[in-house]
Amino acid sequence: MQDFRNLKDFETLLATRLTCYQTFHEMKRINYILPLFFLFSCCKNGLAQPDYNLRFEFVTANGSDYIVDIIMSYTSVGGLGSSNLVFSYNGSDIASPVLVSHNLNGNYSAPTITSPGANLASLNIELNVDNNGIPIAVFPIETNLARVRFTILDPNGFSNLQWNAAHPVHVVFLDNNNDILDANNLAPLNSSPLPLELLYFKANAGDMAIELAWQSVNETNFLGYEMQRSEDGRHFTKIGWHPGFGGDWEQSYSHLDEDVLPGIKYYYRLRQIDHNEHYNFSPIVGAELPADGSRLLISPNPNEGFFTVLLPDIYEEETQLRLLDMDGRTVWEAILETTIFEIKNTEKLASGAYILQVFNGQKRWVEKVVVK
Question: Does residue 302 contact residue 353 with C-beta atoms inside 8 Å?
């Protein structure tokens, strides 16, 4: 036990102990309060309304039109209410924004593009049914809202698209049409419209190859052409590259595709790329080498699933027949050694279009069959 020499020492010690006791209990009280505070904060954040992101995505430019998509995302789950999305653009190089298409459902009035000022445009969205707006994807997933087309004034100019969230007209509502959302990230787009104009693009079938020929004008800031080929008109692969000659006068090009087989329809397109890595696609063209001998004769066609196939002259001992649906799945196949073959609907073919392929050595024939 401590020895107190006088009353003053005892009072001093007592005061010190009391202060420590109060401090200890105050810290205990704080330790209880802080978890409650953080719990409240977490719950509040969990219920917080989202912020929004906006950006432009370059689609194409063909010398006269400059087209972009308006892309939106949220920082958390939510729907889009009535909103005005205001943006500015370089009126010296592009002009007259118009709405091409949109992805807003029937709960909205038809969106519009208006001009709240010089070189300004506003995408106006009106939700008619509260709490029934389209759900906006949570970043990094995004929602494509609309497509906008501008008229190109200067093919060598720049778009300089900027979101103008400070404009008094600009507002984004949650789909309760009551809560105004804050901007999280507003991404600009300052690209140069692809100036090139394609005058024509053709595919001509010869005896052993298919020749691609095209002519263009105004290849300012232009990099070149990627040639692409497809057998179904949908899925394309690269088959070659040709650098652009440059200049604002007419240029002529050609490419010979020798990696082709008779009896197959091939589809082609050009991917036209500038030095800023912007690109657009040409129209799709097609060509087919004549098959060796004659074409497949299918009778009747259309049919009820019973038809006869008269094959061209056979030069190899084994010939393979394969019937595909339009998704490329094999629904029937056979090996034969005759030039006439009867196909009966033993596989219960559904009504629709099919592709009949015949392989004989290096030769190949393709015909379309329609089952009623």
Answer: no
Amino acid at 300: P
The domain ranges of the chain are 12-48, 52-186, 197-288, 297-371
- Inter-CA distances, 162 with 35, 55, 158, 218, 302, Å: 43, 9, 12, 28, 56
Q: Which two tokens stand for residue 6?
A: 């006088």
Q: Which fold has domain 197-288?
A: Immunoglobulin-like (2.60.40)
Are 300 and 307 spatial neighbours (Cβ–Cβ below 8 Å)?
Answer: yes
Architecture of the domain whose range is 297-371: Sandwich (2.60)
Which structure tokens are listed for 64?
């006269």
Topology agreement, domain 197-288 and domain 297-371: yes
Q: What is the pLDDT of residues 277-320, one digit of tens each?
A: 777 788 889 998 876 555 667 888 888 888 888 776 655 567 88
List residues bridging with 147 in a β-sheet.
69, 101
Residue type, 102: H
Q: DSSP 3-state assignment of 329?
A: coil
DSSP string, 17-60: HHHHHHHHHHHHHHHHHHHHHHHHHHHHHHHPPPPEEEEEEEEE
CB 169 within 8 A of CB 122: yes
Backbone angles phi and psi of 128, in degrees to 5: -95, -20
| pTM over cut 0.85 | no
* CATH of segment(s) 52-186: 2.60.40.680
Phi, psi of 206 (to 5 degrees): -105, -155
Backbone phi, psi, residue 37, to 5°: -65, -45
